[in-house]
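hiii, so i know i said id send this last week but things got crazy w the move. better late than never?? heres the sequnce for the chain we talked about at the cafe, plus the structure i predicted for it. fair warning i was half asleep when i ran it
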Amino acid sequence: MTEPLRWTLADGREQLYFSLPGHTPDPVPDRRPLPARGKQMSQLRFDRQTGQWVVIAALRQDRTYLPAADQCPLCPGPSGETSEIPAPDYDVVVFENRFPSLSGDSAFSLPNTGGAEFVAAPGHGRCEVICFSSDHTGAFAQLPLPHARLVVSAWRHRTADLLSRSAIQQVFCFENRGEEIGVTLNHPHGQIYGYPYLTPRTEQMLRAAREHRARNGTNLFADLLARELAAGVRIVARTELFTAFVPFAARWPVEVHIYPNRFAHNLTELGDDELDGFAEIYRDILQRFDRMYPTPLPYISALHQYRDRDDQREGYFHVELMSVRRSATKLKYLAGSESAMDAFISDVTPESVAARLAEL
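okay and structure toks below
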């Protein structure tokens, strides 16, 4: 993949065009009268009850909410007056979010949280939108394989860039698909967050991995993969390079994890053949999701990536896919036990879900 074409939107945000071989992006000037962006638009607040950072981003109340298809801001805008993507067409585009949770990722470090007072800090970080295709009615699962591979290349490019920035501690690529999940734009797209801290789930998993290393002398994630392979009953798909399985203690009605068959911290450590293989199995699992029920499965896709440094060294790159749909007509809501206590209760067995997805 060649370097993306860089463009600038009317309010100064950066935009990058990733293109398939033989395709040349042709953006036009962004002519929208956008207001100038403030230097800092959100705040981090430290929750002493949990020891976790919370992002306060009130500006997101004004973000675009389920517009009509002919007013979609992610469709091509050849006039430069209507869209976030001022171009007659595109393959894959990444740009800074107009309504970011985190922004301003210059040199920054979190304040000391010792003491008893309230602690707050500017909401430094980076939030990007990645548009998978110019087709408003499409989906990642429907992308031709070379196009899906281009999205993976864009994820890898953004991971490498954001990890090179000292203020960013974690890079999180993800997709929310379906109004049941809470998407506010139906156009096929995902997001990329650069956090100035390690997210709570990442810290929790790394802590478990360090404890596992101390007890057993081995990597927790590699051992989990080996044990799932040995058990065999929750494997959904396996290739020479990747394995997809429903985890033993799945929390969600539909949950699949995709692991490379060898250890890597993040996408930048995978070779070209592995990136090809990842695009293939990832698309395959999403296609299985869409064959489960009469309507496409709403899902969250979460790419877990880590830095190669002491506090994250045990982190094993993998993808976690999850859905709130527990039957063709019912959704799982995160009510009292899950939302208040983070104590998940599953309505289905992981083995039955794995068998169904393997059949599909």
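btw The first helix runs from residue 145 to 163. thought thatd interest u
miss u guys!!
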